[in-house]
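Example for tutorial group B:
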């Protein structure tokens, strides 16, 4: 058959649409989606023919491809997956997953009208942030609070409010870059503030800050070294000391905490993260932190501190451009409320639960996965539970390796890379890591409700 003859046998879009298949598709899917799928498949076949192949172009054969394309285009692009990496606050995988209470409050708020900006007592217009101020004051000891879309925005609006065209003193050891292009010097530039670096990479002294003060100094900024640590011959100036010069020269001190840990995790073997409450106690004028890192809530930037400063931020027109929506407000409120009972918070806020879970509990979960897998695929892979280490992620607690247990899968008939890929391509993708010739499923970040699906997906991928 010549290429021309083959092309002429390709069904037209109309033929596909009017076939019995077409009628069936139109019953269940939007016409736009069906048309797009038909066009794509016909196009692909045409290209195959032009490149010299002789594909089956019967309507029957095309219908399979078209149906697959329809399904692909009808599915959400943003979809759930199973995090088997062991990285609890995985920025690429959505950072924190929300607690059930936060989810319930989001659903109720999304489904109904609410007093988002309405004062029920007076029947007058209210303020968006007033509903959440009380609980934040209660938990952190701060005088006042306001919320923006993320911590990057929190830092930006603080700089814009207090330091436009003026100098901000920061230690060289704290000029951090957080993944996704948040770099202190660049945020500074974007805000119109002037960065005044002091000290060296490893050391900054109080005198360095004092010497840098001038008539144009507007702020002292302390940035928490979230995702790295400088170790060895080091010195940094604690906020308490910065507060002394801040008070003496009447210059506000801001602490960008990054993670925003609300519970002293040392009890749970997690060291090295100051709590929000501790930092507030130092007297820092403004403290900012993320909503979706160690707090375990939605993406948000929480700004707390002295009332007069927060009020100034609330008057900044930028706040309107950075304001959070009602669903964020709802999940944040619910998450904060859970901190009223620390023990419950640790159990019920997924990020905290996963970070503080004992190796024993994780081992039990790993063994459960292992035994379900063994029933079905002991021939297709070498399976074992082994100790390993997981990480907090999200630029939190970089130096801590959390002891964990992983299910190690060494496939017999396919390569470990092929297995990794097949798991990623599944209906519910599983994201795992490869170590040597084994695929590791870290049981720390696998939720109990996901185990059955995970096991089925691994079995399907191996057979
Ligand atoms: C993570 C982090 C940020 C950015 O916070 P987002 O909520 O991701 O915008 C800023 N500063 C520090 C120190 C951080 O750790």
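The residue assignment follows.
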């Amino acid at each position: 058959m010549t290429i021309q003859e083959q092309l002429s046998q390709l069904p037209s879009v109309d033929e596909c649409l009017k076939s019995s298949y077409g009628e069936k598709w139109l019953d269940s899917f939007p016409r736009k989606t069906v048309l797009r799928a038909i066009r794509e498949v016909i196009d692909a076949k045409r290209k195959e023919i032009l490149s010299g192949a002789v594909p089956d172009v019967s309507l029957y054969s095309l219908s399979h491809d078209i149906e697959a394309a329809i399904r692909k285009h009808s599915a959400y692009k943003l979809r759930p997956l199973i995090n088997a990496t062991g990285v609890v606050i995985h920025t690429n995988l959505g950072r924190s997953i929300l607690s059930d209470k936060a989810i319930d409050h989001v659903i109720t708020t999304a489904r109904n009208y609410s007093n988002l900006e309405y004062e029920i007592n007076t029947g007058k217009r209210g303020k968006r942030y007033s509903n959440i101020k009380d609980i934040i004051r209660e938990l952190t000891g701060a005088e006042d609070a306001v919320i923006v879309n993320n911590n990057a925005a929190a830092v930006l609006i603080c700089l814009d409010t207090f330091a436009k065209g003026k100098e901000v003193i920061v230690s060289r050891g704290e000029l951090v870059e957080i993944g996704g292009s948040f770099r202190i010097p660049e945020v500074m530039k974007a805000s119109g503030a002037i960065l005044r670096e002091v000290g060296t990479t490893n050391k900054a002294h109080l005198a360095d800050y004092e010497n840098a003060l001038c008539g144009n100094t507007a702020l002292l900024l302390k940035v928490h070294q979230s995702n790295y640590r400088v170790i060895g011959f080091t010195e940094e100036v604690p906020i308490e000391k910065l507060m002394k010069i801040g008070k003496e020269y009447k210059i506000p001190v801001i602490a960008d905490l990054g993670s925003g840990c609300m519970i002293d995790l040392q009890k749970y073997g997690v060291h090295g993260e100051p709590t929000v409450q501790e930092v507030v106690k130092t007297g820092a004028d403004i403290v900012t932190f993320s909503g979706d890192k160690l707090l375990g809530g939605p993406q948000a930037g929480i700004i707390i501190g002295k009332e007069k400063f927060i009020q100034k931020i609330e008057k900044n027109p930028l706040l309107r451009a950075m304001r959070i929506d009602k669903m964020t407000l709802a999940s944040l409120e619910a998450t904060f409320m859970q901190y009223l009972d620390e023990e419950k918070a640790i159990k019920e806020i997924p990020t905290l639960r996963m970070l503080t879970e004992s190796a024993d509990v994780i081992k039990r979960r790993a063994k459960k996965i292992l035994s379900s897998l063994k029933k079905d695929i002991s021939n297709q892979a070498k399976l074992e539970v082994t100790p390993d280490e997981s990480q907090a992620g999200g630029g939190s607690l970089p130096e801590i390796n959390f002891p964990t247990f992983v299910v190690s899968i060494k496939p017999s008939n396919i390569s470990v890379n092929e297995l990794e890929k097949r798991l990623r391509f599944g209906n519910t993708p599983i994201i795992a890591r490869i170590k040597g010739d084994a695929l590791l499923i870290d049981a720390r970040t696998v939720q109990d409700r996901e185990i059955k699906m995970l096991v089925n997906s691994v079995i399907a991928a191996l057979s």
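The radius of gyration is 28 Å. Compare this with the pattern of hydrophobic and polar residues in the output above.
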